[in-house]
Amino acid sequence: MRKTYRIANWRxxxxxxxxxxxxxxxxxxRAPNLLAASPVMLRRFNLAANRAHVGKRSGEAxxxxxxxxxxxxxxxxxxLIFVEEDDVPERSFSLVYAFESDExxxxxxxx
Length: 111
Fold this sequence. Notes:
The protein is of the alpha+beta class. Helices cover 32% and strands 21% of the residues. A hairpin with a 4-residue loop joins strand 3 and strand 4. The mean pLDDT is 83.
């Protein structure tokens, strides 16, 4: 299952990703677990991220002095792993349901 969305503006990019994940869930009955985008688009997510909401997997806050490369996005009832994919149109991203279980998703995140 896959659906492609376009970012309307960067100010509320996180709210847009969340709304798209909920749209995906409503349409397919499952939450997406991958966000696929071009390398340029993923860098734009990094630049647009509000550092106050960026954290490490351990739950600790990110170092405010260090460069942070986002690895994913977490909503209230879903988690997305970011993956590079050159075929996604400019200013767009695709949400994908690719893993049946959380264990499969965690394994993919460590590879």
